[in-house]
Design goal:
Blueprint: H1 8-14, E1 21-24, H2 27-34, E2 40-43, H3 59-67, E3 73-76, H4 84-89, E4 94-96, H5 99-102, H6 107-119
Parallel strand pairs: 1-2, 2-3, 3-4
Length: 121
Amino acid sequence: MRRDSLGPGDARRLNPAWLIGVSVHDLAQARAACAQRPDYLLVGPVFATATHPDAPPLGVERLAEIVLLGLPVIAVGGVTAERIPELTTAGAHGVAAIRALWDSADPAAAARRILEGLRKP
Protein backbone atom coordinates (compact mmCIF):
# COMPACT_ATOMS: atom_id res chain seq x y z
CA MET A 1 0.00 0.00 0.00
CA ARG A 2 1.42 3.38 -0.92
CA ARG A 3 2.11 5.52 2.08
CA ASP A 4 1.97 8.78 0.13
CA SER A 5 -1.63 8.34 -1.02
CA LEU A 6 -4.69 9.79 0.62
CA GLY A 7 -6.21 7.23 2.97
CA PRO A 8 -9.81 6.04 2.58
CA GLY A 9 -11.03 7.97 5.64
CA ASP A 10 -9.54 11.23 4.38
CA ALA A 11 -10.89 10.66 0.87
CA ARG A 12 -14.38 10.01 2.28
CA ARG A 13 -14.28 13.33 4.12
CA LEU A 14 -13.66 15.05 0.78
CA ASN A 15 -16.69 13.40 -0.80
CA PRO A 16 -18.73 10.70 0.97
CA ALA A 17 -20.28 9.62 -2.35
CA TRP A 18 -16.96 8.51 -3.87
CA LEU A 19 -16.13 4.83 -4.19
CA ILE A 20 -12.78 4.48 -2.46
CA GLY A 21 -10.28 1.80 -3.39
CA VAL A 22 -6.89 0.80 -2.06
CA SER A 23 -4.14 -0.75 -4.18
CA VAL A 24 -2.49 -3.78 -2.58
CA HIS A 25 0.16 -6.26 -3.63
CA ASP A 26 -0.16 -9.10 -1.12
CA LEU A 27 -2.39 -10.59 1.55
CA ALA A 28 -0.80 -8.65 4.42
CA GLN A 29 -1.37 -5.35 2.64
CA ALA A 30 -4.93 -6.39 1.82
CA ARG A 31 -5.66 -7.16 5.48
CA ALA A 32 -4.23 -3.80 6.54
CA ALA A 33 -6.26 -2.04 3.84
CA CYS A 34 -9.49 -3.72 4.97
CA ALA A 35 -9.05 -2.12 8.39
CA GLN A 36 -9.32 1.27 6.65
CA ARG A 37 -12.73 0.28 5.25
CA PRO A 38 -12.33 1.01 1.53
CA ASP A 39 -15.08 0.08 -0.89
CA TYR A 40 -12.83 -2.19 -2.98
CA LEU A 41 -9.27 -3.44 -3.41
CA LEU A 42 -7.16 -3.11 -6.56
CA VAL A 43 -4.95 -6.22 -6.41
CA GLY A 44 -1.88 -6.93 -8.46
CA PRO A 45 0.07 -7.71 -10.32
CA VAL A 46 -1.74 -11.01 -10.62
CA PHE A 47 0.37 -12.08 -13.61
CA ALA A 48 3.75 -10.92 -14.88
CA THR A 49 3.43 -7.58 -16.59
CA ALA A 50 5.63 -5.35 -18.72
CA THR A 51 4.18 -2.34 -16.89
CA HIS A 52 5.89 -3.44 -13.65
CA PRO A 53 8.56 -5.96 -14.75
CA ASP A 54 10.23 -6.18 -11.33
CA ALA A 55 7.02 -6.88 -9.40
CA PRO A 56 6.54 -10.56 -8.59
CA PRO A 57 3.15 -11.82 -9.77
CA LEU A 58 0.69 -12.96 -7.10
CA GLY A 59 -1.02 -15.64 -9.14
CA VAL A 60 -4.68 -16.54 -8.97
CA GLU A 61 -4.28 -18.55 -5.75
CA ARG A 62 -3.13 -15.47 -3.79
CA LEU A 63 -5.81 -13.41 -5.50
CA ALA A 64 -8.42 -15.91 -4.26
CA GLU A 65 -7.09 -15.56 -0.69
CA ILE A 66 -7.49 -11.80 -0.87
CA VAL A 67 -11.03 -12.17 -2.27
CA LEU A 68 -11.93 -14.12 0.88
CA LEU A 69 -11.41 -10.95 2.93
CA GLY A 70 -14.82 -9.87 1.67
CA LEU A 71 -14.28 -6.69 -0.33
CA PRO A 72 -14.82 -6.50 -4.08
CA VAL A 73 -11.49 -7.11 -5.80
CA ILE A 74 -10.32 -5.60 -9.09
CA ALA A 75 -7.47 -7.66 -10.56
CA VAL A 76 -4.66 -5.92 -12.43
CA GLY A 77 -1.37 -6.98 -13.96
CA GLY A 78 -1.09 -9.14 -17.04
CA VAL A 79 -4.85 -9.16 -17.54
CA THR A 80 -6.01 -10.41 -20.94
CA ALA A 81 -9.35 -11.58 -22.26
CA GLU A 82 -8.06 -15.16 -22.19
CA ARG A 83 -7.33 -14.89 -18.45
CA ILE A 84 -10.76 -13.59 -17.45
CA PRO A 85 -12.22 -17.06 -16.68
CA GLU A 86 -9.50 -17.87 -14.13
CA LEU A 87 -9.72 -14.41 -12.59
CA THR A 88 -13.48 -14.61 -12.14
CA THR A 89 -13.19 -18.19 -10.84
CA ALA A 90 -10.79 -16.83 -8.22
CA GLY A 91 -13.49 -14.32 -7.28
CA ALA A 92 -12.36 -11.12 -8.98
CA HIS A 93 -15.22 -8.64 -9.22
CA GLY A 94 -13.60 -6.86 -12.14
CA VAL A 95 -10.31 -6.20 -13.89
CA ALA A 96 -8.10 -3.35 -14.98
CA ALA A 97 -6.00 -3.69 -18.11
CA ILE A 98 -3.31 -1.63 -19.73
CA ARG A 99 -1.18 -3.70 -22.13
CA ALA A 100 -4.09 -5.89 -23.27
CA LEU A 101 -5.60 -2.73 -24.73
CA TRP A 102 -2.53 -0.63 -25.47
CA ASP A 103 -0.73 -3.37 -27.40
CA SER A 104 -3.80 -4.54 -29.31
CA ALA A 105 -4.24 -3.76 -33.00
CA ASP A 106 -7.91 -3.20 -32.15
CA PRO A 107 -8.19 -1.88 -28.57
CA ALA A 108 -12.00 -1.57 -28.77
CA ALA A 109 -12.34 -5.22 -29.75
CA ALA A 110 -9.93 -6.25 -26.97
CA ALA A 111 -12.00 -4.28 -24.44
CA ARG A 112 -15.20 -5.93 -25.73
CA ARG A 113 -13.67 -9.40 -25.31
CA ILE A 114 -12.68 -8.57 -21.72
CA LEU A 115 -16.16 -7.23 -20.94
CA GLU A 116 -17.84 -10.25 -22.52
CA GLY A 117 -15.70 -12.52 -20.34
CA LEU A 118 -16.70 -10.60 -17.23
CA ARG A 119 -20.39 -10.85 -18.12
CA LYS A 120 -20.38 -14.64 -18.51
CA PRO A 121 -21.93 -16.48 -15.57
